[in-house]
Amino acid sequence: MAAPALPQPWRLRLAGRWLRAGGVIAYPTEAVYGLGCDPLDPRAVQRILDLKCRPRAAGLILIAADFTQLEAFLLPLPPALHRCVFATWPGPVTWVLPCRPEVPVWLRGRHAALAVRVTAHPTAAALCSRFGGALVSTSANPHGREPARTPLQVRRYFGAGVDHVLTAPLGGQARPSEIRDGRTRSIIRAG
């Protein structure tokens, strides 16, 4: 299957402007639409948590175009874990990895680890590159509802609560990303 086509450059620029201005956007990922924002903007993150009715203690996922965009959030990986993680990236596998103590509680929740992914989705990766760093990535749905798979579903769920919807095809995955525990290598959520 061919990779989804990238949106026009002006659409990525517009989405990047919304992110830098503290906005909340929706964008396609490997399987569903995600909600995203600047992970270091506590107001934007709180807006996402409120939209989803998600408790802060649960923590969030960050996606990136490459590992360098995640390094400031994570403790150095031991060589064996590094090999294991990088065997799955870029791709639809999220890893819960030990994070630096200064990582904000609104990202890690009650945990000493952070869920991160280097995405293989071309639009999501281009968005991270345009923004210049990692982004919050959580499925676009209120708690207990099916994740949005179209821009129309995003708008039906959230209306004007989302500042911008970056429209592009989803990736080829049927389910949201698999989540693995970096300490035990066990699967937390099957993909």
Spell out the blueprint of helices and strands.
Elements: H1 9-20, E1 25-28, E2 33-36, H2 42-52, E3 61-64, H3 79-86, E4 93-98, H4 105-108, E5 113-118, H5 122-131, E6 135-136, E7 138-139, H6 151-158, E8 164-165, E9 178-181, E10 187-189
Parallel strand pairs: 1-8, 3-5, 4-9
Antiparallel strand pairs: 1-2, 2-7, 3-6, 4-5, 9-10
Helix pairs in contact: 1-5
Description:
The chain has 191 residues and is α/β, with parallel strands linked by helices. The chain has one domain (9-186): DHBP synthase (Alpha-Beta Complex), CATH 3.90.870.10. The chain is 28% helix and 19% strand. The protein contains 6 helices and 10 strands. Strands 6-3-5-4-9-10 form a 6-stranded mixed β-sheet. The chain is globular. The relative contact order is 0.27.
Amino- and carboxy-terminal Cα gap: 18 Å
Taken together, the total number of domains comes to: 1
Profile the largest sheet.
Answer: 6 strands, mixed
Number of extended strands: 10
Shape: globular
Helix content: 25-40%
Please identify the structural class as seen in this structure.
alpha/beta
Query: Taking all residues together, what is the mean pLDDT?
Result: 95
Classify the beta-strand content into a percent band: 15-25%
CATH level-1 class: Alpha Beta
The number of helical segments is 6
Contiguous uncertain segments of 5+ residues: none
CATH architecture: Alpha-Beta Complex
Radius of gyration: 15 Å
Q: Trace the largest sheet across and list its strands.
A: 6-3-5-4-9-10
What is the CATH superfamily? Answer: DHBP synthase
Q: If you consult CATH, what is the topology?
A: DHBP synthase
Secondary-structure element string = HEEHEHEHEHEEHEEE
